[in-house]
Amino acid sequence: MILAALVMNTQGKPRITKFYVPLGVEKQQEAIRTIYSALSQRPEDSCSFVETENIFGPDTKLVYKHFATLYFIFVIDSSESELGMLDLIQVFVETLDRCFKNVCELDIVYNFNKVHTILDEIVMGGQVVETNSAEVLKAVQDIWKLERVGDLNVPSVRGIGSYRSKS
Amino acid sequence: MSSQGGWGSSKEFLDLVKSIGEAKSKAEEERIVAAEIEMLKRRIVEPDVPRKKMKEYIIRLVYVEMLGHDASFGYIQAVKMTHDDNLLLKRSGYLAVTLFLNEDHDLIILIVNTIQKDLKSDNYLVCCAALTAVCKLLNEETIPAVLPQVVELLAHPKELVRKKAVMALHRFHQRSPSSVSHLIPKFRQILCDKDPSVMSAALCALFDLVTADANAYRNLTTSFVSILKQVVEHRLSKLFDYHRTPAPFIQIKILKILALLGAGEKHTSENMYSVLAEVLKRSDAASNIGNAILYECICTITTIHASPRLLEVAAEITSRFLKSENHNYKYMGIDALGRVIKINPDFAEQHQLAVIDCLEDPDDTLKRKTLDLLYKMTKSSNVEVIVEHMISYMRTLNDAHNKTELASRVIELAERFAPSNQWFIQTMNQVFELAGDLVPPKVAHDLMRLLAEGAGEDDEEADSLLRSSAVESYLHVLGEPKLPSVLLQVICWVLGEYGTADGTHSADDIIGRLCDVAESHPGDITVKGYSITAITKICAFEISAGRQVDLIPECRTFIEDLLASHSTDLQQRAYELQAILALSPETVANILPMDASCEDIEVDRNLSFLNEFVESAAANGARSYMPENERAGMSTVVTGTHEQLESSAHALRFEAYEVPKPAAPPPIAAAPAALPFPDFEEQKPESSRSLRKQLAADREPDADSLNPEIVRLRLDGVQKKWGRYSQPQSSSTSTSSLDRRGDHGSDQVTQVGGGHREAVAASSIESGPVSELRQIERKKPQPEISTEKQRLAASLFGGPTASGRFSGSGGAKVSSRPGTIVQPAEKVLPPRPSSGGSKEKASDAGISKQIAAPSIPAPVDLLDMSDDNVPRVMTTAPGNDPFKQLEGLLEPVTTSSALPVPPQTASMDLMSLYDGNPAPSATGPVTTVSDLVSIAAPSSSSGASQSSTNGFPSLMDLGDLSASPFVELTGSVQGQASSKPMSQLKKGPSRQDSLQKDAASRHVGVTPTGTNPALFQDLFG
Question: What residue spans carry the region label Disordered (chain B) (predicted)?
C-alpha cells in the first residue's frame, strides 16, 4: 500500500502531506525532514527510489519525481510497484496541470485543499483508485461544481502575479 | 478554472503564505507562524464566526500544522464543520479532520454519527466524502458502527461510490480483519462487477487476502488469468488505457496475485504460462509503465513453478534492464537479477560488469541494492571483496539503523566464509571501529575465542604470531580518540592475555596503556573490569616468570580507586590483584597460568571431595544439609547470586572451602600455604558455583572423579568459557599441564627473539597479508578502470566467469561494454602478432590479450605500459581467491609477451614491486609466476583455436594440449587443483584434523577423548 503522499519543494518546505498510516505530528515532521535530507543529497541522475527503513519500517521505500521546484513523493511498501508509482506521480501531476493550467508551486500552496481533493480521487486509504487523469479531473470538477453552489463569494485575489514573479 | 486564489483562500491566507515564503530565516518564519496561531486561537472561539470564515480558519490551521506546529486547539472546530450541510464546508471539515486526527483520537466519536448519516446521503458526492474519511478515521471499535452503511453502498448505482465502498471495506479488513470476516465472500463477488474499476478495487483487497492465505483463493486462478487476458488483449474500454497501455495497474496487481497463487504450485502455475507469455509479448518496453509490467512479470515468473521458456525471457528482460542507461531500470534490473539467480545462479556471471557498474555508482540506493544482491551471492571465493565493499560503504553511513544492519551482515559473512583467521580479526576490528556498540557482544566473544584458540592448526608459532599482530594492531587502535566499549573490552582482554607474551612490550608499558583505557572511560564499569583483570593477568605472568613487579604509580592510583569503587565487582577484582601481588611465583603460576584461557574448568558436581569434611563436621554435631527450597529466608540465595556475580574470583575464593573450619581465614592469605598440587586439583569444583560452569558440567554428565584426567581434557563447553568472567581460568590446571604451560610460556618468549622475522615472512606467504597486499595495490593509481572492474568482477563472480570468457560468450560481453578501450584493442590485436618478430610469443601475446581483453585494455603498441599492470595483477596471484589465481594465470602471459619489448624483465618488475611490501618473500610469487606462465600458455592458445583469428599450425598442437590444463584451471577454481599456492592448502578441508592435532598438542602426554566441539562452527560452519 501507499503509506504517504508528499509534495515538498526543493528547500524542504512541505506543500502537501498526507499520511495513510497513523503517525503523530512529531513523527510526520521528522519523516519530512529525513526524507528531505535524503532527497536533497541525491545526485541528479540517480534512480527514483530511496529505501526508508529507518522511517517507515522494513521493506518500505519512497518513489519520487522532481518537477521544477517540487518533489512529488510516494512512500510505498513492497506490495506496490516502484515503476508503477512513477506513473502514478505522472498521473497526479498531469491532473494538477490540467486543473491549474501549467501548474506551479504556488498553485499548490494556495490551493492545497483542492490538491488534497485531487489526491483523494487518485489514492484512497493507501490504495490506488484511479489512474486516468481525465476521470480524476471529471470527478473533481463534479465536486467543485456542487461546492460552488453554496459558495458564491469567491474572494478575488490581487497582487499574486507580482509575488509569483519574485519567487 | 482559476489558477490562484480560488474559493477557499482568503486574502489573509494568501498573505500568510506569502510572508512565510518571504521569510528570511527560520526564526522569522517561526515568529510569523506563532503570530498566526495566536490570532487563530483568538478568532475561532469568538461567538458567531461566520461558517465560511471558520472554514478559512480551519484551512489555515491545516496549513500551520503541515509546517509542523500544533493546531490541536482547532480540532474541535474541524469536527463541528463536518456536521455542516453545505457540501463545501463539510468536505473542508472532513479534509481537516482526516489530516488532523488519527483513528484513535478522542474526537472521532463525535464524527461517527455524521459519517453514518452521510453514508446514507442521496448525494453521491457526500457519500464519497464520507467514504474517504472512513478510510482514515475509523478503528476497530468504530468500524461496526458504519459497516452496514458501507456494505449497502456496494450496491450503489454509481460505480465511483461502489469502488470507494470496496476500498473502504478493504481498509476495514486491514485495520481489523475480524470485523469484516463475514464479508470476505463479497470480495470474490465484486470481482465480477460489471465495471472494471470496481473490479480493480476488489483486486487490492484480494491481494491482501491471498497474501494471508493463498490456498483459499487458488480456485480463483482461472478468473484472474482470464481477467488479465482480457486486459492485455485490450478488451477494456479506452478509458482504462494509460499511455496506450491497457489498465497497467490492474495488470500489475493481477501479476502480483498470480505470483502468490503459483508459488510452489506446479499445476496452478501451468495455467498462467500462456497469459504471462502474452503479457510479455504485448508490453511496451519503451515506456516506463510497460517496464513496470515487465518487471512484475519477472517477479511472477521467478516465483511460480518455473517454466524454462518464460525464465529465458525473464532473463533477457533483466539483461535489458541492467544494460539500460536509466538508473531506475538498473535498479529494477539488480532486483530482478537477484530473483533470477535464485533459480539460475549462473546467470549472474553474464552481468558481472553491469553489477560492478552499479556497485560503483554514486547513487546510494543503487549501491545499497547491489550490496544486497552481493550479500545474497557471497561465497568463500568472493567474500573478501564483498566484505571490503561493505565495509567501505559502512564508512560512508551515519545512521544507526543501516549501520547495524550492514554490520550484522558483514559479521555473518565473515563468520561463514572467513578465508583466514587474520582476515577475520581484521574485519572484526573494522566492524567494531565503524559500528561500535551496535555490534552484539557475542561477536566480541567470538573474536576473543578465535584469538585464544588460534588458527586451529598444529602451529603454535602461527598462533602466537597472530596474537602478536593482534596486540600490535590494538595498541595502535588505542591511539584513536573514541572507541566503542565492545572493542575496548576486546582490546583489554587481548592485551592482558597476550600483551607481554612476545616480549616486545614491557609489562609496565602494557599496564600503562590499560590504565589509560580505564581512565579515559570513567563511566564504563565493564571496560574498567576488563582493564583491571588484564592488569592482574599481566602482573601474574610477570610474577610467575620470576620477575619483580613494581607497579607504576598510575596503576597504583587506579587500583586504589577501584578498591573504593561503588561496584563490588571492581572492588573484588582490585583486591584480587592486590592479593596476587603478595603471592609466591609458584602459586601465581597456578592461579593465572600463561595462555590458559582455552583450558577447561573441571567441575565435580557431587562435591565428593567434601565428603570427608562433611562427615567430620557431622560427627562434630553440625546440622545436616537442608535443600534450598526448604529453607526460609533468602540469605543463601543472595549469597549464591552474589558468587555468580563475582568474577575472576574462582582462582582465589575456593581456598575458603579448603580449610575445613567454619571460621575460615581470609582466602588469599591461606592460598600459598594450602596449595599442594594434588589438593589443588580437588579444590577446583568449588569454583564451580557459577551457573556457567554448571552448564559446562551438564554437558559432561559422566564427569567422574575416578577418571579426572580424561574428563578434564574434553573441550566440550569451551564456548561457555566465553562468558565475561572466564578469562583468568586457572582451575583446570593439572600438574602435567602446568609443566607444559611453563615451558610454553618461556617458549614464547625465547622464540620471539630469533624466530620472529622468519615467522613474519612465513605467515606472509601463508595467509594474512593478502589483504594488505591488495590494499597496497588499491592505493596505486589505476590507469584503466576497466581492468580494475574486470578484476573486481572476477573476484566477485568466481569460477564460472573463466569458462564464460573462454567460451565466446565473453566476447559478446566485452563488446557490449560501452566506453572502454577494450574494443579497439581487440580489433587491433589480431594482425599485430604476425608483424612481430618472434611468432610464437607474439601470437601468444595477441591471443592472450584477446582472451583477457577486458583485463588489459591498453592498445598493443603500448605494451610496455602494460608492465604497470602486470605487477598489480601479480600481487593477487598468491591470494586466497581461487579465481584471482586463475586470472593471474592469464595475465603473466602478457608479461612474457612483453619481455622482448622493454629492457627490463617482468620478474624485475615484480621484485621491485615487492620491495615496497613488508616481509617480501623471495620465492613465493616468483615461482608462481613461472608456473603460471607455463600453464597459461597452452590454455591461451586454446582460446586461439576457438576464436580462430589466426591459425598458426604450431599452435594447434598446443591447442590440443590445452584441454587438460584448462580443466585443471577450472578445477582449481573449485579449490581442488594441485596448482594452489600454500595458503590454499593451508585452509583446506583438513581444518578439523588440524584442530584435533592442535588440541592434542595442547595437552601433551594425554589422549584426547572427545572431538573438539566445533570451535569454529560459527566461523566456518
Answer: 679-710, 722-854, 967-1021
Question: Mapping DSSP to helix (H, G, I), strand (E, B) and coil, where does residue B453 land?
Answer: helix
Q: Give the residue on B whose Cα is nearest the Cα of A112.
A: B63
Q: Provide, rounded to the nearest whole percent, the portion of chain B with pLDDT above 70.
A: 59
CA distance B23 to B775: 51
**pLDDT at residue B676 greater than cutoff 70:** no
Closest C-alpha to B1016, from B983, B980, B992: B992
Q: Are B306 and B266 in contact (CB under 8 A)?
A: no
Helix (H, G, I), strand (E, B) or coil at B426: helix
Q: Which residues contact B507 (CB under 8 A, 6 or more apart)?
A: B499, B500, B538, B539, B541, B542, B547, B549
* Three cell numbers, residue B543: 610474577
Q: pTM of the predicted model, to two decimals?
A: 0.61
Query: Strand, helix or coil at B284?
Result: coil
Scan residues 113-132 of B and list those with Cβ closer than 8 Å to A.
123, 125, 131-132
Helix (H, G, I), strand (E, B) or coil at A18: strand
Chain A CB contacts of B289 under 8 Å are: 83-84, 87
Residue B946's SS3 state is helix
At B875-912, the pLDDT tens digits run: 333 444 444 444 444 444 444 444 444 444 444 444 44
Contacts made by residues B967-976, CB under 8 angstroms, sequence distance 24+: B968/B935, B969/B802, B969/B886, B969/B889, B969/B935, B969/B939, B970/B799, B970/B802, B970/B803, B972/B882, B972/B885, B972/B886, B973/B381, B973/B798, B973/B799, B973/B802, B973/B882, B973/B883, B973/B886, B974/B799, B974/B882, B975/B381, B975/B882
A69 touches B at CB < 8 Å: no
Question: Which residues is A64 bridged to in the sheet?
Answer: A73
* Cell (9 digits) for B656: 575458603
* A156 shares contact with chain B (CB less than 8 Å): yes
Whether the CB-CB separation of A9 and A15 falls below 8 Å is answered with yes
Scan for cell 614464547, then name that residue: B748
Q: What is the pLDDT of residue B995?
A: 55
- DSSP, collapsed to helix, strand or coil, labels residue B241 as strand
Residues B554-575 as b/e (b if ≥16 CB within 10 A, e otherwise) read: ebeebbebbeebeeebbebbbb
To test the contact with chain A by mutation, choose from B11, B12, B18 the residue with the greatest count of A C-beta atoms within 10 A, namely B18
B399 close contact with A: CB closer than 8 A = yes
* C-alpha closest to that of B982 among B778, B769, B802: B769
Distance from the first to the final alpha carbon of chain B: 70
What kind and span of H or E run contains A73? strand A70-76
Q: Do A111 and B9 touch (CB under 8 A)?
A: yes
